[in-house]
């Protein structure tokens, strides 16, 4: 499955009321979810989500203040986080940068598919919670826009 097809599927799910789409082609399966619960017809925008305290690497719980914030940007899928568009390039954003809605913040790579994570609200980057090259879980807080 080529990247353009995957991008078109992502855009389709984003615009429609479909909560999840799974497509298999030539032995490759792509699952796209927009955050809608199968039991709910109302999406929960990431900027209004209150993330539950999660377990950090090493098994220790993150402090509640670290995961509860009004404008947390979360990982769309499990994968490897890239803070820059390609190796050696400057990071998309750094601490203190003021971002606009839709601006690229980072990329999460999953099975050679690159998912661009964009700002859902405007404001300064107040916290960066993950390092470049770190594996992230779907729904894991990545950054905070304050």
Describe the structure.
This protein is mainly β. The chain contains 2 helices and 10 strands; from the N terminus they run αββαββββββββ. The protein has 2 domains: 1-44, no CATH class; 45-145, OB fold (Dihydrolipoamide Acetyltransferase, E2P) (Beta Barrel), CATH 2.40.50.100. It is 12% helix and 32% strand. The strands form 3 sheets. Strands 3-10-8-5 form a 4-stranded antiparallel sheet, with no helix packed on it. A hairpin with a 2-residue loop joins strand 6 and strand 7 (113-118). The protein is globular. The model is unreliable at 37-70 (pLDDT under 50).
Instruction: Report the count of strand segments.
Output: 10
The assembly state of the depicted protein chains is single chain
Low-confidence stretches: 37-70
> What is the C-alpha radius of gyration, as a whole number of Å?
15 Å
> How does CATH name the architecture of the largest domain?
Beta Barrel
Sheet having the most strands: 4 strands, antiparallel
Give the end-to-end Cα distance, rounded to a whole number of Å.
38 Å
Helices and strands, in N-to-C order?
Answer: HEEHEEEEEEEE
What is the CATH first-level class name of the largest domain?
A: Mainly Beta
Compute the number of structural domains.
Answer: 2
Sheet/helix structural class: mainly beta
Q: Strand portion, in percent?
A: 25-35%
Helix content: 10-25%
CATH homolog superfamily of the largest domain: RNA polymerase II/Efflux pump adaptor protein, barrel-sandwich hybrid domain
- Lateral arrangement of strands in the main beta sheet: 3-10-8-5
Please, how many helices? 2
Mean pLDDT: 76
- Gross geometry: globular
Provide the CATH topology of the largest domain.
OB fold (Dihydrolipoamide Acetyltransferase, E2P)
């Amino acid at each position: 499955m080529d990247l353009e097809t995957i991008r078109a599927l992502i855009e389709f799910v984003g615009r429609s009321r479909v909560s999840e789409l799974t497509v298999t082609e030539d032995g490759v399966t792509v699952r796209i979810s927009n955050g809608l619960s199968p039991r709910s017809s109302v999406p929960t925008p990431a900027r209004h989500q209150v993330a539950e305290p999660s377990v950090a690497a090493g098994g220790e719980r993150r402090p509640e203040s670290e995961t509860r914030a009004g404008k947390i940007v979360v990982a769309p899928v499990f994968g490897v986080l890239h803070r820059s568009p390609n190796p050696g390039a400057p990071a998309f954003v750094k601490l203190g940068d003021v971002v606009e809605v839709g601006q690229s913040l980072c990329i999460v790579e999953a099975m050679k598919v690159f998912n661009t994570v964009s700002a859902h609200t405007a404001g300064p980057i107040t916290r960066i919670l993950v390092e470049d090259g770190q594996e992230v879980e779907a729904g894991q807080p990545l950054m905070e826009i304050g």
